[in-house]
Amino acid sequence: MRPKISLVDYGLCNLYNVGNALEHIGADIIVIDKPQEIAKASHVILPGVGAYKNGMRGLGLRGLIDPLKEHIEKNRPFLGICLGMQMMLSKSYEFGEIDGLDIIQGDVTKIPNTNSKNRSHKIPHIGWNKIIMNNNARHHDLLKDQDDKSSMYFVHSYKVNCNNNENIIATTDYNDVNITAIINKDNAYGCQFHPEKSGKYGLNILKQFVKL
Q1: 0.70 exceeded by the pTM?
Q2: What is the mean predicted confidence (pLDDT) over 57-75?
């Protein structure tokens, strides 16, 4: 039987690409946008592009904030992608201070346009970057098929800052600016990059998520 993966539609989702990638690895897709659908879901993916404020507003208007938190509190598999990962944090400073889901304590701030040596770089951060796994990353099922060559595709202007470094399991380097790439709490994960656009390494992330 093919596993069923639920994609949350809150108005800012790239459901087509994520859905295609999941179907490619052998999963069936269920698009959900109601609280009762989250309550019934086994695996939930929260994708997203766009502004943090609009994302949280979309979740709030549909009554999805508490159901998503309850899903995670029950230790059911959850994956936030790009904006979906950022909304897992306590708050963001994109266009003002906006409260997030507060699944992982921390905040979201703009990527600085210069590094510590005052060398400038383009914002948004767009393109392929190697992910640097922490020492405990190998203990996470999500990263079982990754190696030292793992590169992922990023598109973002804001970065995640976790209060507890134990919630960070992988980072990437952008012109000597350290950027959090993967976060975790229990069975909830977040990816700043787009696994659905990241070739075999990204597909391996999705394969392992389906198996959680």
Answers
A1: yes
A2: 97
Question: What ranges do the domains of the chain cover?
Answer: 4-211
Question: Per residue in 160-170, pLDDT tens?
Answer: 999 999 999 99
d(CA 210, CA 207): 5
Residues annotated as part of the active site? 82, 194, 196
Q: At what angle do helices 65-73 and 52-61 cross, to 10 degrees?
A: 90
* Distance set, CA 28 to CA 4, 18, 181, 188 (Å): 5, 12, 26, 20
CA distances in angstroms from 86 to 90, 98, 99, 148, listed in the order given: 9, 11, 11, 25
Enter the tokens of residue 174.
């952008």
Q: What superfamily does domain 4-211 belong to in CATH?
A: Class I glutamine amidotransferase (GATase) domain (3.40.50.880)
